[in-house]
Write a structure and sequence with these properties.
There is one protein chain. The protein is of the alpha/beta class. The chain has a domain at 301-464: Rossmann fold (3-Layer(aba) Sandwich). 21% of the residues lie in helices and 10% in strands. It has ten helices and eleven strands. It has helices at residues 4-10, 14-23, 296-307, 311-314, 333-345, 360-371, 388-396, 411-415, 442-464, 466-470; strands at residues 215-217, 235-237, 255-257, 275-277, 279-280, 290-293, 319-327, 349-354, 374-380, 401-406, 430-432. A seven-stranded mixed sheet has the order 5-6-8-7-9-10-11. The termini are far apart. InterPro entries: 5peptide_repeat (IPR001646), Pentapeptide-BTB/POZ_domain (IPR051082). It comes from Ktedonobacter racemifer DSM 44963. It holds the Pfam family Pentapeptide. This is Pentapeptide repeat protein.
Length: 471
């Protein structure tokens, strides 16, 4: 219970209270369990005061001194602590929901299991603070400084953390789902086993950060720096890694699936035991065909092939186990994915390409370059029309093309297409009755046919150019 004498002095106003504190500097005021609803304590000297269990709902504490104060389970709902000095205070279990702590000094404060949902901590200083298991949902921590702060097990779902400085902080098993950490400084922080699903880390610095076993689903890491970052055992699904820097990062035993890796810098990374699948290497913002590969190394090689004209010769026949899988324009991507999945099981390297009607000449040039480095092409021709880029590829290229379509397609119209007038196009096309065939027997038949066509082509080349056989 509060000391009645201390409470009476406080009710006389801030001026009287501060004068008393100067006269009795050795006293530690006891205001525990006091009801101080909407009290005005702006600029008050409340250092070392015991507010345990007190009610300070909507209190005005702007610029107040609360160093070493005890605010255990204190209610500070929607209180204003702007520019307050709260260093080394014990705020374990305190309720600061909706509170304003703009530019407050919270260094080495204990906020263990405190509730700060929706609180405004913009531009606060929280170095070495203890926020373990704190509730920071939708809190605003933009531009906050939090060196060596402990956020282990904290809930930061939907929090605004733009420009935050979390250097050397610990956020083990913290929940950052949907949080905005863009332009943040998180270098050398420990975010192991944290959940960063749908978080925005655009242009953030995560050099040497520990993200081991972290969950990154739908996360934005575009233009982020992850030099030497530990991502061992992490889950990266549908992550935007475009133009990110992952030099010397550790991705051993990690899973990378359906990630955007356009423009990525991935030299000297560790990938032992990593599972990689359907990594998008093209720029979604430039109306390019969607091209996916199954590993970062292949992605970087093909990126150079597609972007540098002189690379075509250097990469000739670079992927004998590569297979270009072309999805049709009217939504046949799932069928192409089924084919690709079976090709992986057969130890081939599928490169998926999804065309759209707006791509034209650029798409044709990209297909030509890709076809020049793979063993053969598998193309879905079951749409309303056969893509003009595919017909052009068949006319100008020498890579075997294996077409397929649903049995419901107009087989007569397909066979009358100019596509089947070309020597390296297999005819008739493969037809499937059920979608399940695309992930079971049909790909094996396609591969067998393609290998036969490759042998025929090689034999023809050797007859025309005998020196090739001798070489």
């Amino acid at each position: 219970m509060a000391n009645q004498q201390h409470l009476d002095i406080l009710r006389q106003g801030v001026e009287a209270w501060n004068a008393w504190r100067k006269q009795a500097p050795g006293i530690k005021p006891d205001l525990s369990e006091a009801t101080l609803w909407e009290i005005d304590l702006m600029g008050a000297d409340l250092s070392q005061t015991n507010f345990s269990g007190a009610n300070l709902v909507r209190a005005s504490l702007q610029g107040a001194r609360l160093e070493n104060a005890v605010l255990y389970r204190t209610s500070l709902f929607k209180a204003d602590l702007s520019e307050a000095s709260i260093r080394e205070a014990n705020m374990t279990g305190a309720n600061l929901s909706g509170a304003t702590l703009h530019k407050a000094d919270l260094q080495r404060v204990i906020l263990y299991r405190a509730t700060l949902a929706g609180a405004n901590l913009f531009d606060t200083t929280l170095h070495e603070a203890n926020l373990c298991q704190a509730d920071l949902r939708k809190a605003n921590l933009s531009m906050a400084r939090m060196h060596h702060t402990d956020l282990s097990g904290a809930n930061l779902t939907g929090a605004i953390l733009e420009g935050i400085d979390l250097k050397d902080a610990v956020a083990h098993k913290a929940n950052f789902t949907g949080a905005n950490l863009s332009d943040g400084l998180l270098d050398q922080a420990n975010l192991s086993e944290s959940d960063l699903s749908n978080a925005n880390l655009h242009n953030s610095i995560l050099d040497e950060t520990d993200l081991s076993k972290a969950i990154l689903r739908g996360t934005t890491l575009s233009k982020a720096s992850l030099i030497g970052t530990k991502l061992r055992g992490a889950t990266l699904e549908r992550v935007d890694l475009s133009n990110a820097n992952l030099v010397q990062s550790d991705l051993r035993e990690a899973m990378l699936a359906h990630c955007l890796v356009y423009g990525i810098n991935a030299w000297d990374i560790q990938l032992e035991g990593a599972r990689q699948q359907e990594l998008i290497i093209t720029n979604a913002g430039e109306h390019e065909p969607v091209i996916t590969v199954d590993d970062l190394e292949t992605g970087q090689m093909l990126y150079l092939l597609l972007k540098q004209t002189h690379s075509r010769v250097a990469f000739g026949c670079a992927m004998p186990k590569g297979v270009l899988v072309l999805a049709r324009r009217d939504g046949g991507y799932e069928e192409a994915q089924s084919i690709a999945a079976r090709l992986r099981e057969l130890d081939y390297q599928p490169i998926l390409v999804e065309l759209s009607a707006a791509q034209g000449e650029k798409a044709w040039e990209m297909l030509q370059r890709l076809a020049s480095v793979v063993g053969f092409v598998i193309a879905d021709i079951g749409g309303p029309e056969i893509a003009p880029e595919l017909i052009t590829l068949s006319q100008r290229g020498q890579t075997p093309i294996i077409p397929f379509a649903s049995a419901r397609a107009d087989s007569q119209a397909l066979r009358g297409s100019a596509l089947f007038a070309q020597p390296w196009v297999y005819r008739p096309p493969f037809f499937y009755q059920q979608p399940e065939e695309l992930s079971t027997t049909l790909p094996e038949r396609m591969v067998s046919t393609a290998q036969s066509r490759l042998q025929e082509r090689q034999q023809l080349l050797e007859r025309l150019f005998p020196h090739l056989k001798e070489a």
